[in-house]
User: Fold this.
Amino acid sequence: MYKSIGQKIINRIERKLNIPALADKLANALSPSDFNSLMTELYAMRAAKISPGDMLQLYAQNGYAKPAECDAVQYRRLELDMLLAARERGVRSVILSPASLFGCCSVFGAVSQNKMISATRNLEMVSDATNMLALHAAAGIKEGTINHADAPVHLCATHRHIRYQSEFGTGMLPHFGIYTMVSAGKSRSSYAFEIEAFLFHLRFYSDYWMRKQGSALSVSFHRRGGYKDPDGFFYRVTEAVKANGTGIHILSGEQKSETAYYKGLQATLYADVGGNRVEIGDMGLTDWTQKLLNNKSERLLISAMALDRQMS
Assistant:
C-alpha cells in the first residue's frame, strides 16, 4: 500500500479547501481517463494565467528548463561515436521517445515516483532510458519481433535524463545524458547468460574508452540479492570475468552498499580524470523482463555510461 511522504502537505491542502480525503478520492475514486481529463483541464486553467512577461521570470527560476552548458556539436559527436561503436558489435540502436509511461520506474519497486517528473496522459519525463529499452525488448519478445532464444539480443540508445531533486549538490545536473545498453536473453546452465552478457558489456566499454581516451577503465563488483545462491553466483561470474579478460582493471575488495535496483551482481565503472578516480558507468542484472513477461527464465543485463562527464 502506498504511503505518502508528503502527508503533511496533503493534510494542509485538504484543510484549506475543506475537502476531507481529497487526495485519496482523486487518486483512487476516479478512473484513469477521468483523472487525466481533470489534470489536463487543471493545467490548461493554470497555464491560461501565465503571461509572456511571466515566462522569462519563470525560466530564470527553473533550472530544469535550461539547456546544458556543454558544447552541442561535441556532445552529438560523442553520442554518435558510442552508437557507431555499438553497431560495430552488433548492438541495435533505438531512438527512444522523449516521454516514458507513467510509473515506468516506480512500478518495479526500486525507485520512488516522487523522484520522477510526472505528466498527464499516463506519461512522465524519461528518468531512466534503460526502463524504456527493457519495455521495448519485452514487447518485441512477446510479439515475436525479437528472438533471444538462441543468443542474447543487445539494444542501445542515448538519451537525456531528468529527475526531480530538492537541491543540487556538487556535480549534480538538472538533466544529464547517458549511453545505455541492455542485453536480453534466456536463463542457461552455469550462469552462461550472465557471464556472456557481463563480458560483452565490459569489453564494449573497455574498448571504447581505450580507443577514445587512451586509458583503461577500472571496475568494482558489488554483491546483490535475488539469486538462490548469492555467494556462489557472485564468485562464478566475477571469476569468469577475471579469467576471460576485458582490459578493465578490477579493483580489489567488494564495495559495501545496498540497493534494490540490481539482482545478483552490480559493477561500477571508473575512469581516471585529471588524476582522480571518477565514476563513469554502471551495470547490473535486473528482473524487469521477468516481471514484464511473467517468466522466471528471462534474463536482463543493463548498463549505462555518462556522457556529460566525458565532456569535461
